[in-house]
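Data availability (excerpt). All sequences and predicted token strings are deposited with the supplementary files. A representative entry, tRNA (guanine-N(1)-)-methyltransferase, is shown inline so that the format can be inspected without opening the archive.
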Amino acid sequence: MRVDIISIFPEYFAPLDVSLVGKARERGILEIRLHQLRDWTRDVHKTVDDTPYGGGPGMVMKPEIWGEAIDAVIAQAGPAASPRMIVPTPSGRPFTQETAIEFAEEPWLLFTPARYEGIDSRVAAEYGSRLRVDEVSIGDYVLAGGEAAVLVIVEAVGRLLPGVLGNARSVADDSFAPGPMANLLEGPVYTKPPVWRGREVPEILLSGHHGKIARWRRDQALRRTLEKRPELVARLDPAGLDKDDRKILTEFEAPCGIPFRAGPDDVAN
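Structure token line:
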């Protein structure tokens, strides 16, 4: 995958040289190119912003600078290829694990993180007419700039690329991953020693009984989700719930306020 990032602070992305993303770059799985937006300015002060039309506080990033920068980056690959353009903004659609999986299937992503009050809205409209443009939010809060959001998205996407993780099952077991654990938080995890400061690892994990361990992990994921993110329970697919799942959901209905009802086949459990 190729990733291009245009920013007035390209040095912000030094963390992309370390850990899993850094190793993916070394192995050629992920190619990241950084571009200084100010390289496309034409005044001595390298100005990238101006006052907003209609008045109001703050400054707005100029469309002509962004336009020249984006055109130049796209032109590097020739007319046969085009990137999917990602614009981090609090007004965008929520970035989720599902979005990360979607982006990981793209061969080329172009990120345009803004500063100040954002980029002139005509830029997204212009490129939305000829590229796939996604305005994406990593949360309901405002940052000083979009660079931190790009770091989050690139790491979430990069770890999904084939060959990045040493164990492919790690992706399948992630919180929010599609499949049996979809919309569930991952349960507690443990490693050696079996006893630490008087606290023991749950006996079931030492049993070697893979079926019982899988059931325990599923139960713990359900309980943790109900305790910490009960709103996620509404997203569970009823068709994917077995009797043990329903029993736990029913137990937690009163304290969590979850509108769940056991089916007729679950009463005996």
